[in-house]
Specification:
By secondary structure, the chain is mainly α. The strands form 2 sheets. The chain has a 4-stranded antiparallel β-sheet. A two-stranded antiparallel ribbon has the order 3-4. β3 and β4 form a beta hairpin. It starts with a strand and ends with a helix. The relative contact order is 0.11.
């Protein structure tokens, strides 16, 4: 509660016997009509033999003679009150009193309940409980996003491979997957479930390069999936950091020794896995390698061409890249293998037995291709790049194990060892690059 001292003129003598005062209520202080406050003349220096000057009000308990007079907003009391002052206020007690006389309320009184609640043990315990609940909720939400990301990626890889086993035309399937993603994003934008970014000619021009490299990376991966086991494609795709470091170095970026050392086990592990792969096919190996090149160039080119469009979030950016990639890929797909689609369709129906089953596989491959990419962007928005890199590495392990169990691909011990070494190298790479980013950010803050 606010405590104020009254320093009366020297001519006024205060005795111990005069410490009994008649208390004032809120109506007497603020006025019955809610207008200008009406103070007793003794407080304002207008009576009691005073000189008519305004009193000097201060926070604290200064004694006048042998007695101390303490004031609070609703009256006078001889009992000490808690002395709380607003540290952010630069006005003096006199200015606050004068402003109160003119009809402006003081801010000090409103701080008393707040300060009391902040200082109470119950308030601190309640704040800690709310923080703990919020942390648990965020952790649970993040676990759900990671679970969806992993599950959707596994479903995509399984049904994409099933469709390619009976319909070995990856150009068609890759185009259909981009088509499903384009329709999905258009539905989200039209229903306003996702804010649609403003489209301009410079934005479309800036997207042309990243969309082209995304198309190359996507179709190359699908070609690899059609020729070799899914597990082998993912082991080779774990070598993407090697291409990232090499290409970025050619463009002027420098990396510490820890990053260069981390790519050595990746190269060794991928080489060992390729040599010992039962289903080895040069087309599958080259497809996975070209996919790495395409996605690395997409990331590098995106940083250079899209740095002026930071207001576009990741999901919207991916949506527009998907749409442009569809325009890139579909005409080429028709040219490359379009003449074989009808005949391949009839063979696929004969192999499966029911057309609905084949439709189901193809549809799931398209839907879950977009869903797992969408979940990855949502996860990247909620976590740090280091956590995302580690999660992506673990996702590749889960996908490899799941597809080996589903398709029962034979795995030799050396092949498993090479895969483990390559993935472990990817983990080391994510750790080293995150340390490099943290060091660069620390240097920027100091400068």
């Amino acid at each position: 509660m606010l405590s104020m001292n009254l320093s009366l003129p020297p001519a006024v003598a205060v005795s111990k016997s005069s410490r009994r005062y008649r208390p004032m209520n809120a109506h007497a202080l603020l006025g019955r009509s809610g207008g200008t406050p009406s103070f007793p003349s003794c407080l304002l220096g207008g009576g009691g033999g005073g000189d008519g000057g305004a009193p000097v009000l201060g926070i604290g308990s200064k004694s006048l003679g042998s007695a101390g007079i303490r004031a609070h907003p609703f009256g006078l009391s001889s009992r000490p009150c808690s002395q709380i002052q607003d540290p952010s206020s630069k006005t003096s007690a006199l200015d606050r009193t004068v402003s109160l006389r003119r009809g402006f309320p003081s801010r000090t009184g409103s701080l008393v309940p707040k300060a009391a609640s902040e200082a109470s043990p119950e308030g601190e315990a309640e704040a800690e409980a709310e923080a703990a609940v919020s942390k648990k909720s965020k952790t649970l939400q993040l676990a759900v996003v990671f679970g969806l990301w992993y599950f959707q990626n596994i479903v995509f890889n399984i049904y994409n491979k099933k469709a390619l086993n009976v319909f070995p035309y990856p150009w068609f399937l890759a185009s259909f997957q981009l088509f499903v993603g384009s329709v999905w994003m258009l539905v989200l934008w039209s229903l306003k479930l996702q804010p649609c970014p403003k489209i301009s000619k410079p934005f479309i021009v800036a997207l042309l390069g990243p969309a082209l490299f995304h198309t190359v990376g996507h179709i190359s991966a699908c070609v690899s999936f059609s020729k070799v086991a899914v597990s082998f494609t993912h082991v080779i795709k774990s070598a993407e950091p090697v291409f990232s470091v090499v290409f970025s170095s050619f463009l002027g970026d420098s990396y510490p020794l820890a990053v260069w050392l981390s790519i050595l086990p990746i190269v060794f592990g991928c080489s060992l896995a390729a040599v010992t792969e039962v289903s080895f096919n040069f087309g599958g190996l080259s497809g996975a390698m070209i996919s790495n090149v395409g996605f690395v160039l997409r990331n590098i080119y995106s940083k250079k061409s899209l740095q002026n469009f930071k207001e576009v979030n990741g999901l919207n950016l991916y949506g527009w890249i998907t749409i442009l990639s569809l325009f890139y890929l579909f005409p080429v797909a028709v040219f490359v293998e379009g003449a074989q689609w009808v005949q391949g369709y009839h063979k696929a129906i004969e192999a499966v037995g029911q057309s609905s089953t084949f439709y189901f596989w193809v549809l799931l491959s398209g839907v879950f291709y977009h869903l797992y990419n969408q979940s990855s962007y949502q996860a990247l928005d909620d976590i740090s790049p280091l956590t995302f890199s580690v999660g992506n590495t673990m996702k590749r392990v889960v996908v490899i194990v799941s597809t080996v169990l589903v398709f029962r691909n034979p795995v030799r011990p050396l092949n498993a060892l090479g895969s483990a070494i390559a993935i472990f190298g990817t983990f080391l790479y994510s750790q080293a690059t995150s340390a490099k980013k943290a060091k660069n950010q620390g240097g920027e803050k100091k400068s």
